[in-house]
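Hello,

Following up on my earlier ticket. Below are the two sequence lines again, exactly as submitted.
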Amino acid sequence: MTIMDTHQDLATQQDTFRAGLEANDWLLPTLGDGVNGLGPQAEDVVQGIAAAARRIAAELSPEAGTRRLRFPPVNGTRLLERTDYVASFPQLLGTISAFEGDNKAHRKLLSMYEDGGDWSGELSPAGHALVPAVCHPLYAYLEGSQVDGTVFELMGECYRHEPSPDPMRFVTFRMFEAVRLGTPQEADEHREKWLAAGTDLLRALGLTVEADTANDPFFGRAGKLLSAGQREAQLKFEILTEVYPGHPTAIASANLHEEHFGEAFDLHTADGAVAHSACFGFGLERVALALAAKHGFDVAAWPASVRQELGLS
Amino acid sequence: MTIMDTHQDLATQQDTFRAGLEANDWLLPTLGDGVNGLGPQAEDVVQGIAAAARRIAAELSPEAGTRRLRFPPVNGTRLLERTDYVASFPQLLGTISAFEGDNKAHRKLLSMYEDGGDWSGELSPAGHALVPAVCHPLYAYLEGSQVDGTVFELMGECYRHEPSPDPMRFVTFRMFEAVRLGTPQEADEHREKWLAAGTDLLRALGLTVEADTANDPFFGRAGKLLSAGQREAQLKFEILTEVYPGHPTAIASANLHEEHFGEAFDLHTADGAVAHSACFGFGLERVALALAAKHGFDVAAWPASVRQELGLS
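Thanks for your patience. The regenerated structure is below:
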């Protein structure tokens, strides 16, 4: 069973899907463009996927162990510089501004908004920014340390400024990530094992998926070269599924960063070499919505094996 | 047992507590001022408190039922206007800016940051803002509807721009909230029941707590009047505990909003009257840290009854 009518064009399919998600309390509209709340069933499914991912993390735990850490959706603006995000993906980032004025400045702000103006341009940079990928705060936290192949299990909220009529594309969404820092071999092995286990989980949930090489959306003209290089070196794989027939959407990704973060944050292995890193991430809302597209909006009617995998029965 | 030395002054006590939290992996430093990650034990305790709160929600569920919804940490900037937050608490809000320039604007941005300048002032308001209280997105979601005394169970992340050396004060933190919208009687009853049940839970966790009237930190000269009025009308109660002896910290609050949100978002009851609302919230990180101050940093050594209440044994 699929909710999609394959004869509609892509934009119509996206609108139809969004309408179904909203009518069935899966997506809750907010006042933010591209920002959605989740209803009870959608949230249960998100939590079920995260729990299944934690089971994989326990099964694949290396000798050095697995550590579960938690970072909030906000970090220092400086993190966007240190990870090269402002250089590579300026179109996606979000920084935070705050009001630091007095009574007089506040009166000005209020009169602007009473006149229907945009008062938020009056604020000052707060030194805070939204986190675009849940593994970024980890590298800053580990800065200057020796790494040993431990896997870090992270779940958190990301912000990427790309409002879209496609309900599969959230401006703010949760990601489960398993990150390993260590030797090149440890990073490779991590990426390979998780890509296989992640694909298996998504298939066990009834999704038709396929892994393929991919590239991040590097900005601008120079970015085109970076994208081509990333794809050619097979640094990024995505797990894709066709929520809209003929138009695959990525619902998970597996990345080798080579020395990128090791160098930026002075991370090294016991032999003094720059650490390599790799991560695997599930886009939790995207997986949940792909499951709704596949199995329908009524979770109670989903196949028993899928419900069991998600801890829902 | 308490970790605090009562002979130190407050600032020293805060520094000592922070040092202990960091040394024991309870708080993980980030690049953001006042922003902390959580280590595995702290996160387990946060999840345990949230689970205990959900049990209370199930026990106190009214005839109209309880609905669990989930809103992300970001919403439209317009939400800050509609809730009166920009008028009442401008000093705490955070809005989001994004980069919408071309290659040339990007080169300027990069040269600013290579020169060590603050490039984030070059960005444009994105129409998005951080959510300061997890119940605010709910009112916007319900806009224009009839409410019937249903309780809404929410857990989410808040941002309040008040960096502080006190580890109990997070710029970004999670809140569990139980919100009820309905008649004045339904709102009153909700606040009363949750204030009692929340106090009981915190006592069962071994904390010495006390409920007291309080006020929100309304901005500026005019705000002083609002604060006094709120306190006099007993609209806000806080549950306080002394992490620092002699200096109570709020770890939960119970609020009557009267018609404030009902009026702002056109919410009404079956008889056509403007809906009243009330909410009860636990500051999850604050409760977790208060427990660490009380029972120590090693959760395995906490009293069996506390571990059981948190689902940790």
